[in-house]
Amino acid sequence: MKAKSANRYPPELRERAVRMLPEHRGEYDSEPDAIRAISSKPGCHYDTLRAWLRQHKTDVHGDVAPALADGGLTVDERQRLKELERENRELRRSNDILRQASAYFVQAELDRHWKK
């Protein structure tokens, strides 16, 4: 599931807003000031643009802040992780079904030998 901001803004707008930051960074005293000023142009919130910038840095440069909740994974890596987790759940469920079926058939075989 994507975040709300990912659905609200087209990818072209996000990319353009992120590209504007380094282009206009020199006009502002700090990066937060630049983000604050530029975020009003596409009409997004300061935190939204900051998150886009953080994700862009992770995707392109591999820059990872140690405190990031997602571990600094790129979008592709997060997608792959979700797929692997889903596959892992399915395999565990299958193994559990096979284990139960095996126990059932073993018990049925043991019962059959006792009845002879």
Automatic annotation (TrEMBL):
GO annotation, biological process: DNA transposition
One Gene Ontology molecular-function label: transposase activity
Positions in coiled-coil regions: 74-101
Pfam families the record matches: HTH_Tnp_1
Source taxon at top rank: Bacteria
Gene3D superfamilies in UniProt: Winged helix-like DNA-binding domain superfamily/Winged helix DNA-binding domain
Record keywords, A-Z: Coiled coil
Xref: InterPro entries: Homeodomain-like_sf, Transposase_8, WH-like_DNA-bd_sf
Assigned protein family: Belongs to the transposase 8 family.
Name of this chain's protein: Transposase
